[in-house]
Structure prediction request, 385 residues.
Amino acid sequence: MDRIPLVHASLGAQELAAVAEVFESGWPAGQGPKGKALEAQLVERYGVGDAVALTNCGVALHLALLALGVKPGDEVIVSDYGFPAPAHAVRYLDAVPVFADVHADTGLVDVESVADLITPRTVGMIVIDTVGLPADYDELNALAARHGLFVIEDAACAVGATYRGQQAGTLAPVACLSFHGRKGATSGEGGALLAADPEVGQDVRLRSAFGITSIFDQAKVIGLPISEFTEIGYNYKLSDIAAAILQVQLKRLDGLLERRRAVAARYAELLADEELLTLPVVPEDRTHVWQSYLVTLDASVDRAALAADLRAQGIGCGHGTWAGHLQPVFESKQVCHVSADLFRRHLAIPMHAELSMDQVERVAQTLRAALPTHATSARGLRGAA
Ligand SMILES: *Cc1c(COP(=O)(O)O)cnc(C)c1O
Prediction:
């Protein structure tokens, strides 16, 4: 039986050839020729003030908060539903993540719940483009402007998505991208920060390299310049090996996303009239890049049993993403009902650019056949018979 994996990174011969070039250049470390070329490619693609290539999206969030001057004890509102890297980043600075609930149909942060959480200690918000769908930025940016708050777009999953004609990654003054192996474009691990303000980019670039300018650049200067360390920085630079891979991935992105969109469209057809689940919703003013395809199971379905059944039949699946406020590390006393419910009921089914339409059909068929077996009402009926 052919296994259908939940995720699969589309890396191939073109990426290998780009890596071979880096080996020949003799500069595999960060901020070299490939790193700079990638940053230029990102600036061009997004039309932003600056782009900084970083080791991952988590560190991009960390450096974004530092550049924006977040201090210990400050409150930062974060989307509750999504990979909880924003809350981790807030905690890196001993600041306080405050979790905002989301909409049931999209999993996107609810602007009203953000507004309700603003206090005199709130300094800003990190908004997640949940599994590849941009949030309500017109309303969020307006709310932030009224209260003097910063907005960071966590576009980790949303490279290539759009909102009202604008690209994800440009929907707030600062955005963080991920190129982790489970995202639409990848270098294995990787990330970037996009900033409208070049000074933010400059601050982030310095802190990503222990607080000094590019060692690669220094070697080209005549004389013997010696950088001084003037602040505590980190080593968050993306390697030129990863940057070379990403240059290829970004060129291939439109084609890869087209495949994901075709898979999503086919799932929507095949599962449309299935009563035991609800399909993901995409508002008309934005596009989804389907980092994951999450269906919401009816409350009567035993998700763990269903997932075990699907896996036994060779169909990869998962729980979707996380409700941040429920993670023990944050010791949150907040309640986010909708997010908690999605965390219990979402099921991720295979989504990547290598799926064939035959595989998509098999996933849908197997899922539909298994669902009634794992619904409480069906079990009740069997019990009665
Ligand atoms: C994947 C993800 C991250 C983390 O990205 P890394 O590059 O793995 O650090 C952050 N935020 C969200 C919403 C994500 O989905």
